[in-house]
């Protein structure tokens, strides 16, 4: 099982309550370390199913035959009080093999690789703009 941590505006998941100013942008980072296969990270607000549509997800590194993943969500709180949860689940990837030849499989793998690279680029761009 991966080791999962949650940071909100720099406060670690050891802190149970984080106080923020009104209209303050919340930056939440969920890290899943030591997963195999890659962990799928989803976000819950007030225990409601995945309500965040726009968040970044990236596989940060591969070490000791396990994956380290990060997910970042930014939002402005809509109420005075709320609960934010990140959930890490092991993601199993299914690949469909078409019998018409290897060209289709190659295109699928190329698209999957490109999609992952795009997510990493978006994550790095977000980090660069914050510095």
Unreliable sequence segments: 92-108
Radius of gyration, taken over Cα atoms and rounded to an integer in Å? 17 Å
Structural class by helix and strand composition? alpha+beta
Could you describe the largest sheet, including whether it forms a barrel? 4 strands, antiparallel
Q: Between the first and last Cα atoms, what is the distance in angstroms?
A: 32 Å
The helix content, as a percent range, equals 10-25%
Number of helices, where a helix is a run of at least 4 consecutive DSSP H or I residues = 1
**Beta-strand segment tally:** 6
**Strand line-up in the sheet with most strands:** 1-2-5-4
Shape: globular
Element-level helix/strand string: EEEEEEH
Strand content: 35-45%
Average residue-wise pLDDT: 68
Summarize the structure.
By secondary structure, the protein is an alpha+beta fold. It contains one helix and six strands.
Write structural notes for this entry:
22% of the residues lie in helices and 37% in strands. It has one helix at 102-130; strands at residues 3-8, 26-35, 39-45, 56-63, 66-75, 84-90.
State the main characteristics.
131 residues, 4-stranded antiparallel sheet, 22% helix, 37% strand, Ig-like_fold, disulfide bond, membrane
Write the layout of secondary structure elements.
Elements: E1 3-8, E2 26-35, E3 39-45, E4 56-63, E5 66-75, E6 84-90, H1 102-130
Antiparallel strand pairs: 1-2, 2-5, 3-6, 4-5
